[in-house]
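[Meeting: bench + compute handoff]

Bench side (C.D.) handed over the final construct sequence. Compute side (W.E.) agreed to return the predicted structure before the next meeting so the bench team could plan truncations. Sequence as handed over:
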Amino acid sequence: MQFTFINEESTSQPLKSFLLKQGISHRLYSQLKHWPDNFMVNGQLTTAAAVINFHDQVQITLPAEADDPQVATSFAPLKIIYEDNNWLVIDKPAYLSSVPGPSNRTDTVVNRVKGHWEKQHEQNMVPHIITRLDRDTQGLMLIAKHRLANIWANQQIAQHQIQKLYYALVSGNLTADHGIIDQPIGRPENSIAHQVLSNGQAARTEYWVLERLEQTTLVKVKLHTGRTHQIRVHFKYLGHPLVGDHLYGGPLDLGFEHQALQAYYLQFWDQFQQTTRSFELKQCLIE
């Protein structure tokens, strides 16, 4: 794949400095130096030692990411919300893991995406999962289709620029209409479950009450950080675990066999097309 960047700065600069400013990571730059014919300036092949002047056009070429034969291919269906040359957005069902692991190496989101791309005869065959969801959480997931999309998306993750909103059905009645749970999260040794710990990683969850039901409360949730099980842990900490959440003590007799959690909204900046992309599932998890 080829990508072109134009130097809009009036001063000259080394090729490396210019590409790093475009969001090319140090690691990718190092790889580009060792791949043949990867740097072109104004249509002419050049080396990594080139100097970039005002309005020069710099083109890089990324070799295709070949299929990893150790990662199984699954042709089970995917619910695709959006796809172009750089991004794939899907609606993941509950009970489907995001990535292969010891309990399932053959039918996860990664395996199904490989099958989908194989049928489309894609050149890049390595799915880069950007917004991972727990196995039992349903909703929108963003997947990058090549190295550069993965780098740019993860830079947005690091800067908290990808917006994710969730619906959650929690047990009991939350009294506050709006709240922020700002408590560190960690995992005790020899435990699968995470919990609020004083020496854990900073974690911040914001919520708004949408509807109070007889035994539960429907909330909209925004993550300001992305810790493992963050929503589940924080509502457990409040004394209102998610309905159906086996791991964190949620009630199992209120209509859900898995945690009642849905990633219903996703927004990110598409640097390739210089536009904001947003996606929303119209059906709430309790409808």
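W.E. noted at the follow-up: DSSP finds five helices and 18 strands in the chain. C.D. will use this when planning the next construct.
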